[in-house]
Amino acid sequence: MNTLNWKKTRLLTGGIVSLALSATLLCAPVAMASSTGEVSAVRSFPAQASASRRHLLSESRSVSSEKSSQWGGIENLSIPRVDSPAQARQKAQASARQKAQQQQASTRQQAASRSQVRQPLNSVHSSAEPAPAPTAAPQVVSASASNAVSYAEQFVGRVPYVYGGNTPSGWDCSGMVQYVMAQYGISLAHSSGAQATSGQPVSDISQAIPGDIIANSMHAAIYIGNGMVVNALNPRVGTVISPLNIAFKSPYAIRRVLH
After folding, report:
1. 256 bridge partner residues
2. pTM of the predicted model, to two decimals?
3. How far is residue 141 CA from its own chain's centroid?
4. Is the separation of the CB atoms in 104 and 237 below 8 Å?
5. Which of 105, 121, 177, 228 to pair with 237, CA 20 to 30 A apart?
6. Which residue has the higher pLDDT, 93 or 241?
7. 167-196: per-residue pLDDT in tens?
8. What is the rounded CA–CA span in Å between residue 181 and residue 256?
9. Please, are residues 238 and 161 in contact by the beta-carbon 8 Å criterion?
10. Which CATH architecture has domain 137-256?
11. Would strands 30-33 and 39-42 be described as parallel, antiparallel, or unpaired?
């Protein structure tokens, strides 16, 4: 065999041996010795195809939202309204009036719940039911009677109830009636029972006129019309205007002293 053929044969043989050796190395390591006496191990692993992950970061590149989503805006903000000083004063005055009305209603309700024992008089008038308000004045109200009512009304809310008192610095029910009537020349005793027998009797509340005295042994007041009286009701509320059925819980007399 010439030199050229020998080299081809060796190259072919070596390729077969190398191919077989590579197949063997796929499964297990092969120890190889070199001419220097050193031993080395070689392991071969099959190549694996790597999968492409094209959309790995797609969520960071796009954001979707519904078209109907309401994100708001400064144009939709509700800015609180600030009242001017004049408006603030008006609101404060309205609030004060409302509180005063509520307090007055509470006072009337408390006065209605009072339970006092009163001695009845020989009279046909009873306060068991609200007194009917006359549709028209059956009698002509004298100037003095009308003036007495106006004079008494000016003390409402201003004069306290003081037992035994009979001046604008403080009075009780009969003391108020005594003081007001004295300004028009009428002298009355400082006693509700005595005032219930003074002047001329009035047969019924429908015949009463402003300026008449309404009294019994426990209370006295001045009639102002429409079923209402001005009176020093009690120490808690002082001088007030009250419905007739609130001021009197038992029969009363109607007396006319001003003509």
Report:
1. 200
2. 0.50
3. 47
4. no
5. 121
6. 241
7. 999 999 999 999 999 999 999 999 999 999
8. 11
9. yes
10. Alpha-Beta Complex (3.90)
11. antiparallel
